[in-house]
Amino acid sequence: VQLQAFGGGLVQAGGSLRLSCAVSGSTFGIQVVGWFRQAPGKEREFVASIRWNSDSTSYADSVKGRFTISRDNAKNTVYLQVNSLKPEDAAVYYCIADKWGTRHWGQGTQVTVSS
Fold this sequence. Notes:
This protein is an all-beta fold. It is built from no helices and 11 strands. Helix content is about 0%, strand content about 60%. The strands form 2 sheets. Strands 2, 4, 5, 6, 9, 10 and 11 form a 7-stranded mixed beta sheet that branches.
């Protein structure tokens, strides 16, 4: 499975973006898709996830109420709607897919937040 994330950019604090992750290759066996992020000098951290075959979601406490993860299986695309952005949300955002116990990573998309 291959993952390609896009949709990042420069946004003012308080603004919004929608990140997308295109999932290609065989999706059979994918259990969970989601997003991680990594800010400069910090470890990569979990942001949100959603099960591939249900609407069960999980969010990091730092983004609850501001970020929404969704997916469109017909388009094999995962979305992350990011609202009320804060300077601390600035990071490279990576999409992931867990398939048969293996985590697959896409390339990141940069989100920059100006204060």
